[in-house]
Specification:
Number of domains: 1
Strand content: 15-25%
CATH architecture: Alpha-Beta Barrel
Number of helices: 10
Distance between the termini: 6 Å
Bound molecules: 2-phosphoglycolic acid
Structural class: alpha/beta
Length: 245
């Protein structure tokens, strides 16, 4: 239970079609009557195919829409199959997730992520910048070193970090049902906050209504990036309710 301002970001990954927009009705209704609504920011990051219809559906609700990736070039060009930050903004997105481990696994380097962050902020999108170590790196006790590199290169030459949030997502916690030990998580979040002054740091990786009480007992987390549980409105609402009950 907390009284802090918190972010609840839904990452739908490669799930969802037109019909899944109906599942937002419950969340819109819940949010309207939620007493602590001024304490929370809800952001939905569906596949790009749903950004425009979803932003219409959420118009005037104060629930926001984001994308899960963008091209590094904010200007249009001959890049078959890609979408840039200006196009996402045009479609109704206000946020973009960059550096997610599933995108890093398909080839995004720290340097490329840095270019994407620059392009997104130029287009006026806020960035949810994901960082996190793999299980092998954790076993070798390299977590801090890896995070340090991801932050250093990812945020290089970005002076204005006002519209950037960091999401710490240990790769081994994503989709595994496992979350870090509270004391480890507290320390890692503190480490990130010391590296990047005045930044909000969210946690992501197997967040659920079952472990949210434990996560909320760690008092330096500024919100959650939620994958699997965000596709089920009831579970998503439960996570928010339990955070403030
Ligand atoms: P998960 O995904 O909640 O399903 O573990 C989180 C994420 O990948 O952002």
């Amino acid at each position: 239970m907390t009284n802090k301002y918190m972010y609840f970001i839904a990452n739908w990954k490669m799930f969802g079609g037109k019909n899944s927009l109906n599942s937002l009705d419950k969340v819109i209704k819940f949010f309207k009557s939620f007493k602590k609504k001024n304490f929370i920011k809800i952001i939905y990051c569906p596949p790009n195919t749903l950004i425009n219809p979803m932003s219409h559906k959420l118009k005037n609700t104060r629930i926001f829409v984001g994308s899960q990736n963008c091209h590094e070039n904010e200007k249009s060009g001959p890049f078959t199959g890609f979408v840039n930050s200006a196009m996402l903004k045009d479609a109704g997105a206000k946020y973009v997730i960059l550096g997610h481990s599933e995108v890093r696994q398909s080839g995004d380097s720290n340097k490329l992520i840095n270019q994407k962050i620059k392009s997104a902020t130029k287009s006026g999108l806020s960035v949810i910048f994901c960082i996190g170590e793999t299980i092998q790196e954790k076993r070798k006790r390299m977590t801090k070193k890896v995070l340090d590199q991801q932050i250093k290169i990812g945020l290089r030459k970005i002076g204005n970090r006002k519209n950037i949030l960091i999401a710490y997502e240990p790769v081994w916690a994503i989709g595994s049902g496992i979350i870090p030990k509270p004391s480890d998580l507290f320390q890692t979040i503190n480490f990130i906050k010391k590296k990047v002054k005045n930044i909000k740091v969210l946690y992501g990786g197997s967040v659920s209504s079952k472990n949210i009480d434990q996560l909320n007992s760690i008092n330096n987390i500024d919100g959650y990036l939620i994958g699997g549980a965000s596709q089920d409105s009831k579970k998503f609402i439960d996570i928010i309710k339990k955070t403030y009950n």
